[in-house]
Amino acid sequence: MTKIKVLIADNHAMVREGLKLALDNHKNIKVIGEATNGKEAVKLALELKPHIVLMDISMPEMNGIEAAVEIKSHDNNIKIIMLTMLDSEKFIVDAMSVGIDGYLFKESGIKELATAINRVYEGGEYLNKEVTDKILSYIRGRSFSSQTLNGNNTPPLTPREIEVLTLVSKGHTSKTAAEKLFISELTVVKHRKNIIKKLGVKNLAEAVSYAASHGLI
Amino acid sequence: MTKIKVLIADNHAMVREGLKLALDNHKNIKVIGEATNGKEAVKLALELKPHIVLMDISMPEMNGIEAAVEIKSHDNNIKIIMLTMLDSEKFIVDAMSVGIDGYLFKESGIKELATAINRVYEGGEYLNKEVTDKILSYIRGRSFSSQTLNGNNTPPLTPREIEVLTLVSKGHTSKTAAEKLFISELTVVKHRKNIIKKLGVKNLAEAVSYAASHGLI
DNA sequence: ATAATCGTACCCCTTTACGGGTATTTTTCT
DNA sequence: AGAAAAATACCCGTAAAGGGGTACGATTAT
Questions:
Q1: Cβ-based contacts under 8 A for chains A and B
Q2: pTM of the model
């Protein structure tokens, strides 16, 4: 029996070690190498010729997508399964467009990962439900996505706070937002402070970023 | 011999399973429970009375720091080791101020985690300056932000500008962004002005919004 | 080779944001 | 009816953002 040779590329040693331990428990899977960044992943993939590369998207030096493109361009037989956090919607689309074979969230369990490895090894693709949902919601214009897995992921902003944040994201200052809402500038300032506190961010720019990536605005 | 009872709180099943496998390999450590969010972590911690809680910072429902505060307020004998990604610098200070017993980046290996668990169990702290320093220099060394394979619609921003905008979207001020990039604060200010001008927006909050909806960051 | 762009750095000045508060009214949910 | 949450409005202070300039070395493109 030929074991499926797997290369792990992730800059988190803890993740690498945990995955290796877990995967080596499967009799038909063998982890043959570990890379800590994209460049190393490319180098090792071409050297070791794994069947499958488990690739984290965000890595130093060269990100997972770039590394995947590089690997595929040299040896298209090497399959690549992308691993990532839940909130990287933008990357999923990028990844899909460069011919990734599988896409999994780290929120998924190891059992699912093993399934994915086997399916991809046999020539298939593996996109789980959450990934599909993400892609769809992204394409549809990021209205209200990301509420797929564990229910409530976003801190509770009140309707008024969301209204204020939306205005801010459109370039309004507290003063102009206040005029638009027919309330005092000081009230808008108050809302703004509450938003920053609730979201645990440093300023409104970060709040806008957070809100945008969570479909709040 | 009493085993050290450990509760794992992390919303990524993969991480939980990997850690459990790895830690149960250590004869004096036993994982007695797993929580998938902050609220569950509090509940299980008070029920199961673990010696140590391994707590991820970013979790749905209630984040790791809030959960830690809650647990400590009910039972101060329960030790808490915070686990987090490299890019959550902003939480470190918060975590430190609420009496966390240990702080580890997921980039650290499981060996170091075991060391931390043992040290904390024996009543010590694990906040090593060495790691923190190494981490900080690591963080400062990797400001790349991945804007390489962009075949899509014209982002009129230069790579450096995108880098600045990305930092801004993560809550950096001009000063802290400048420190991170090893350039003058005035230069960052200049970049930010150019960004606003180029994108035709009123302020950085709107710029972040624009960038987020156009996949620039 | 020469023009254009980029990244760097600084000057002036005004406006806005931010981080603590406190407090009252209105709405919403038991 | 009473509690809780939300929305309203204000105080203090410091920090940062933003708008307008200029300038110069290093790349990059033509």
A1: 148
A2: 0.44
